[in-house]
Design a protein that fits this description.
By secondary structure, the chain is α+β, with helices and mostly antiparallel strands. It has two helices and nine strands; from the N terminus they run H-H-E-E-E-E-E-E-E-E-E.
């Protein structure tokens, strides 16, 4: 068989169903949309919801919590349960109320930005929500008052603090 005839037969064979060339073309036709769909899903920004579970023990006025970073979220909810003051004074309440201020960290040459103070009544578990916050920022909260006072004579214990950002 001459070389020209072999090339013609090979070209015809590769177009036939079941040949290696045709199988790869069919696989590419099936997997290309699948891969494109997976890439589209992973490239789409997801709704980022995060949380921190922690506690506070022996904190005073002006205590700053740990920080967390928002990635697209604009709302923070803080839950406190069963706050107590120490030492417990016979004339004062064992259960406390406290005022927390949500703050956004800024570069070192600027003061941190406050986003409002909210009161927590700790005779029962309570929560407060901050909305409309700038995204892609680092936040923390500061204890502004304990039992309505800015004095640092009392300390605050909160066995359960839950911070949710979404």
């Amino acid at each position: 068989m001459s070389q020209g005839r072999q090339q013609t037969e090979l070209a015809r064979d590769s177009d036939q169903p079941g040949t290696r060339h045709n199988r790869w073309a069919r696989r590419a036709a099936i997997f290309a949309p699948l891969v494109a769909g997976i890439l589209a899903i992973t490239a789409t920004p997801a709704l980022a919801i995060g949380h921190i579970t922690t506690y506070m023990a022996g904190v005073r006025v002006n205590f700053d919590s740990q920080t967390w970073t928002h990635r697209g979220e604009t709302m923070v909810t803080i839950y406190l349960s069963w706050c107590e003051t120490n030492p417990v004074h016979p004339s004062g309440p064992a259960y406390a109320n406290t005022h927390l201020e949500l703050r956004r960290q800024t570069p070192w040459y600027m003061p941190d930005q406050g986003h409002g103070v909210k009161q927590f009544n700790c005779t029962t578990p309570s929560s407060q929500v901050w909305t409309g916050l700038p995204s892609d920022a680092t936040y923390y909260f500061r204890v502004n008052k304990i039992n309505g006072s800015t004095s640092s004579s009392n300390t605050l214990d909160v066995p359960y603090v839950y911070i949710r950002y979404e």
